[in-house]
Amino acid sequence: MADMQNQVQAEQARKKQALIQTLLKNAHIPPRFEQACFESYQPVNAQARQCLAVCQRYAEHWPTRRAQGGGLVLCGRPGTGKNHLAVSMAKSLIQTHQASVLLTGALQMIRAVKNTWSKTAEKTETQVIQDYARPDLLVIDELGVQFGSDTEKIILFEILNTRYEQLKPSVLISNLAPAEMADCIGERVMDRMQEGGGGTLAFTWGSYRQQKSQCV
Q1: Pfam families this protein is in (predicted)?
Q2: pTM higher than 0.85, yes or no?
């Protein structure tokens, strides 16, 4: 009996690890951040430590965040660790909760929707929007690099509002200041990001990358 239980447990562990590897692959984590984790994040001041703590709590309380649909906005100066913390959250959710996560760029997402307008498109606009609505967590990087046209705002709103209605959390990453985010993605999107226990983290300190290069 004990041997059989051990075999069952071993098989369950194998299937769990196989699922985690599949989820990590499907998350499209950039190679530069494949090793990122909470433990390797280096907070340079009290504000950075607070941002780290908030992201850790978000991952720890994922079942609640998932049930409420609450996301996060990580915005502010470049080189301050926004992507590092976003990837750390994604990997934690995959490894601990086997949640499905997708990381994408704003331009990539907008381009995917616009490509459906071609007569030769393989997918419809609705199908692409559902592709982005499907993951438990969607992480959108580089918000603010797009032109900010009404069409782009409508696409962003359509995707994020679909997720909002389905209680699917999203994490938005931008080098813009918090006050500039509403102009970029629209006030309705920013308003929805504050619901369900969501919030905005401002990364206002100097670039870690610049400090590191000066020490070389």
Answers
A1: IstB_IS21
A2: yes
